[in-house]
Write a structure and sequence with these properties.
The complex is a heterotrimer.
Chain A (H helix, E strand, L loop, with lengths): L10 E7 L7 E7 L3 H12 L7 E6 L11 H5 L23
Antiparallel strand pairs in A: 1-2, 1-3
Chain B lengths: L2 H24 L8 H29 L5 H6 L19 H22 L5 H29 L3 H14 L11 H8 L6 H18 L22 H9 L1 H5 L6
Helix pairs in contact in B: 1-2, 1-7, 2-5, 4-5, 4-6, 4-8
Chain C lengths: L1 H14 L12 H20 L1 H8 L5 H26 L5 H9 L17 H21 L5 H29 L3 H19 L12 H6 L7 H18 L10 E3 L4 E3 L5 H8 L6 H14 L1 H20 L1
Antiparallel strand pairs in C: 1-2
The chains are: A alpha+beta, B mainly alpha, C mainly alpha.
């Protein structure tokens, strides 16, 4: 199976900003052989229902992802640090605007 | 010829060209070289049908015979269509299609840019809205012509042949008659000689990027202004108009 | 030993409704099942463009034409989302398409039936999309993250598809005699294949066991079929069409419709390539793929040249 030649071109991940002021959000991916084609394909595929005001396309190969093996050391150490959230703090009764 | 009669003919040229090219684009559905391209070609078709509907509805209003967009699309005969000869050229292979679309969208791009200032408000609004769509169609077809022209030897040769074969239909885009004379005086229409030089520059630029050579102007086809088409239009209409003609009293 | 532990952890996640993501450990059978199911689903979207495309150039009004084109275009898009989800399971789109091209992979049998009249555009949208939507709504809760996300997006976009079909057939059912006949004929031809789209009875469906345990499937074939029939009968009634099943009857005790026996011999014959359009659909796809080969090669060559130019510069 792995011997068949690729017919679809590399994968590009697509990020769309739905309106000015908002962050670009990952919406999916597509195949394209060059960046202009990736951009046009993203426009045709992911903004047909007025979903966007700006598009980013990023070659999938350029993305580095953490792995499930990283989970414990990356994310669990922050489970016991509630002092990073405002509800951790006890405010005097009646204090306002804080 | 009254100004209104001229206006009807002029708007039919715009509406019919979009309709016929749209029908051609729809035929690409499920036939594209990759899935992404299928979606892109459908998008172009949808834009063109939208343009056709605006113009044909307007024609129905101004001609005053109570005809709807559908009457005009499905109940007229071959000689009553005024679309450009280029718009009816068959799809052929993908290269034939993108070359045709490049030549046509570069034409409508410059035409609509000029018609944005038409004294006729409907035409000006139509041009303004359609221009946004056509700008994308031009970009899409231009990029593909460049990819094919500057791709493999096979694709280069194919694209060059497509260009050579379709070239004789480009002059028809710029022909004018009394309709134009009348409407140019009223600042409704624009002088297509000006559009031709702008078109020519755009095409030259893209062909250079695509490493393709511009064919010589030798024999050139003409006739769309008089409803004189190539044989292919009749077949396109036979297919498109089949249901309303087979069931003339039915509503769909 | 390690695998047993991993399997337990995997099942615990599934039971806790935590989605499985591409890089997570998963049993090989889970991966294979998903590869097969998602790619079949994708192939169905792609092949499904053809029976409707058959009427695109002959749509009877400009509105009908743009609506149909937009709908078929969505199907291409949905095929694309699904291939994209399937690719996260470690197989490329090229490989999946190769399986389609060589008939190693299946797609929904319904698309191997011809669309003979314009009323079939109504029947396909109303019944075929209707059945697909029942299935897809349920799959929004499937356990594999990328598949579930794809389904959410697809369901959102498809909400107009069934209405488009129902509108066509409803208009025809209240139209001229000829139109009414066409509408009823379309329903007659598409009814049974549509309800068989949900697959064999649960008792004859060997894959259901693990698929339910692993929450790939959130409802069984028979449950989904029943839900589709229950909601469709009324829709046929109000437009004055008759569902071609003499055994169809409301069962007060069950709170569901009883319905007649499906022809499973026909179902399996079509699944195995014996449908009226089986060869035609595959050939159409393969022709498009072949005709596009030089274009894909050109695009790749062009991109390679640009990269070389960048390096030199």
């Amino acid at each position: 199976m792995s011997e068949i030649t690729d017919s679809q071109g590399p994968i590009w991940e697509v990020f769309i900003q739905s309106k000015p002021g908002l962050a670009h959000k990952h919406v999916g991916n597509l195949h394209a052989t060059d960046e202009e084609m990736a951009l046009q394909n993203a426009r045709d595929l992911y903004t047909r229902r007025q979903e966007g005001t700006c598009i980013w396309v990023v070659p999938f190969e350029a993305i580095t992802s953490s792995t499930p093996e990283d989970d414990e050391s990356f994310f669990e150490p922050n489970n016991d640090k509630a002092y990073r959230t405002p509800t951790h703090y006890v405010m005097p009764e009646g204090a306002k605007h804080i | 010829m009254t100004t209104n009669e001229a206006l009807v003919k002029y708007c039919l040229r715009l509406g019919d060209s979009s309709l016929i090219l749209g029908q051609r684009m729809a035929a690409w559905c499920s036939n594209g070289p990759v899935l992404e391209e299928d979606i892109a070609l459908s998008n172009i078709g949808l834009d063109l049908f939208g343009q056709a509907r605006t113009m044909l509805t307007y024609v129905g209003e101004i001609e005053g015979k109570g005809r709807t967009e559908n009457d005009l699309a499905f109940k007229r005969l071959e000689r009553e269509f005024y679309n450009t000869l280029l718009s009816e050229r068959p799809n052929g292979h993908f290269g034939d299609t993108v070359v045709r679309n490049l030549l046509h969208s570069a034409y409508t791009y410059h035409l609509y840019t000029a018609l944005k200032d038409s004294s006729n408000e409907t035409i000006a609004a139509f041009a303004s809205k359609s221009l946004k769509e056509i700008t994308y169609h031009l970009r899409h077809s231009a990029e593909w012509v460049v990819r094919l022209g500057d791709g493999t030897e096979e694709s280069h040769n194919k694209a060059q042949v497509s260009l050579n074969e379709i070239w004789e239909y480009t002059d028809d885009l710029f022909t004018m008659n009394e309709v134009d004379d009348l409407l140019i005086k009223e600042n409704v229409a624009v002088d297509l000689n000006n559009i031709k030089s702008l078109w020519s520059n755009t095409i030259n630029e893209i062909l250079e990027r695509a490493t393709l050579s511009r064919p010589e102007d030798s024999f050139m086809q003409a006739g769309s202004l008089n409803g004189m088409h190539s044989e292919v239009l009749g077949h396109l209409l036979a297919e498109m108009q089949f249901l309303p003609r087979a069931y003339p009293d039915a509503n769909w | 030993m390690e695998d047993v532990k991993k399997l337990e952890a995997f099942q615990a996640k599934i039971d806790a409704e935590i989605k499985i993501e591409p890089k997570d450990w998963m049993p090989e059978d889970y991966r294979k099942h998903l590869q097969r199911q998602i790619s079949q689903h994708a192939h169905s979207e792609i092949i499904g463009m053809q029976p409707e495309g058959n009427w695109l150039l002959r749509a009877p009004s400009l509105r009908a034409k743009v609506v149909l084109l937009a709908k078929i275009q969505d199907e291409a898009g949905h095929g694309l989302y699904l291939y994209s989800a399937a690719e996260t399971l470690g197989k490329s789109r090229t490989e999946y398409l190769e399986e389609l091209r060589t008939a190693k992979a299946k797609y929904s049998s319904i698309f191997n039936y011809p669309t003979l009249t314009w009323a079939d555009m109504g029947a396909v949208g109303w019944l075929v999309d209707g059945a697909a939507i029942v299935n897809q709504v349920s799959l929004q809760r499937t356990s594999y993250g990328p598949y579930a996300r794809g389904m959410v997006k697809i369901c959102k976009e498809e909400s107009f598809h069934q209405r488009q079909g129902y509108e066509i057939i409803a208009d025809m059912a209240r139209g001229s005699e000829a139109q009414k006949e066409m509408a009823q004929d379309a329903l007659n031809r598409f009814w049974w294949p549509s309800i068989m789209m949900f697959g064999p009875h649960d008792s004859d469906s060997p894959n259901t066991g693990n698929a339910v345990k692993w929450k790939i499937k959130r409802a069984t074939n028979d449950e989904l079929r029943q839900s589709f029939i229950d909601k469709t009968v009324h829709q046929a009634e109000i437009i004055g069409l008759t569902i071609p099943d003499p055994d169809l009857k409301w069962n007060e005790a069950k709170g569901h419709y009883d319905f007649g026996k499906m022809d499973w011999d026909e179902f399996w014959r079509v699944v195995k390539g014996g449908g009226p359009c089986s060869k035609q659909r595959l050939k159409h796809y393969n022709d498009a793929h072949e005709n596009g080969k030089w274009v894909r090669e050109a695009a790749k060559a062009y991109s390679d040249k640009q990269l070389t130019k960048e390096k030199v510069a």
